[in-house]
Amino acid sequence: MRTSPTLLVCAAALAAAALPTPALAGDGGGAAAPDEAPSRAGGGTYGAHVPGEHKAGRPDRSRRRAARRRGMLLTSFRLRRRHLFLHGRAARLLFTLEGRRPIRMRLRVLSAADRSRVATIDLGERSAGAHSVAFTGLEAGALPEGRYVLHLVGHGLRRAPTASSTADLDFSHHAFPVAGSFDWGGEDARFGARREGHRHQGQDLAAAEGTPVVAPRGGMVEVVQYQAGGAGHYVVVDGDDEDYDYAFMHLKTGSITVEEGDRVRTGQAIGEVGSTGSSTGPHLHFEIWEGGWYDGGEPIDPLPLLESWV
Questions:
Q1: At residue 106, what are phi and psi to the nearest 5 degrees?
Q2: Helix extents (H) in 191-288
Q3: Which of 88, 165, 189, 217 could form a disulfide with 204 if both were Cys (CB 3.0 to 4.6 A apart)?
Q4: How do residues 226-262 score in pLDDT, each as one tens digit?
Q5: Average pLDDT for residues 267-280, to the nearest whole number?
Q6: Which residues make Cβ contacts (< 8 Å) with residue 73, sequence separation at least 6?
């Protein structure tokens, strides 16, 4: 069947009239691609993804870099001197930081038993580099005797994978007076044992000649004397913050390292075990006086305290 040209023209015209007119980008409707570049046109189309652009739910790299610049990286931390004495030589906190912006640092003192916080010490603002801080145990009042964990913290402080931010510490209020091997001796070495014309006023600690003798407590050296027929070379120290005097007798000739009026630290060497004066062998005769030594005080049995310090 032949279709006339007239019918074909009419059909084409009707089809063209039925098609919708393409919307312009400025009209805000339709889904046709705009003539303008995607970055300038409106509508629902997206331009190509540019590396580094922000994505929802994920911080961009520049923000992460800015966060790193604001903080500090702890690359090392250690405690020099793990056993610290009250009124003794200070321990040193050694730590190294990396970063651009200084941060305020703190040291938390935690109980080793349950990690409860005992004290917080402000270390001030710290910049990048190596730091050394003295720690005495007196920064927030005298710490009780015990075992502690020191924890270094700071706002914005991060820890390197190979670094630790904690260190263990033993804190004691007294040091044992013989810094080496010793023997308690028998009944004759005890406080109150009979002596010719008197009773023993201290505790004898047998040890090899030359063994260091140290101050059980920091304080003032009151007496440095020699008594040929009795104590031999001896030293008396008045302890700080307590009503005790400590006497050390029969010290080795030439070993005494302190003079009257000197201040000593807990655990500091003051002499060596000897056998001077009235002595039958190397030992330390150790006395504790409550109150002044021969100045209104009286001797007490040292053994219970010595056993708690050993």
A1: -140, 155
A2: none
A3: 189
A4: 999 899 999 999 999 999 999 999 999 999 999 999 9
A5: 97
A6: 97, 98, 99, 157, 158, 159, 160
Same domain for 93 and 157, yes or no, is yes
**8 Å CB contact between 121 and 109:** yes
Residues 82 and 159 reside in one and the same domain: yes
**Domain annotation covers residue 119:** yes
Last residue of a domain, one of 138, 172, 206: 172
Secondary element (H or E) of residue 17: helix 5-18
Residue 69 has what pLDDT? 54
Q: How many domains does the chain have?
A: 2
pLDDT digits (tens, 9 = 90+) for 106-140: 999 999 999 999 999 999 999 999 999 999 999 99
Q: Please identify, among 143, 172, 201, the residue that sits at the C-terminal boundary of a domain.
A: 172
3-class secondary-structure state, position 306: helix
In a domain, 109, yes or no: yes
Inside any domain, residue 27: no
**Burial zone of 9 (CB within 10 Å; 0-12 exposed, 13-18 middle, 19+ buried):** exposed
Domain range for 135: 68-172
> How much is the pTM?
0.75
Which two tokens mark 80? 């020099």
Closest residue by Cα to residue 230 from 245, 251, 205: 251
- Chain centroid offset of residue 196 CA: 53
Q: Concatenated DSSP letters for 125-179?
A: EE-SEEEEEEE-S-BTBPPPSEEEEEEEEETTEEE-TT--SEEEEEEES---SB-
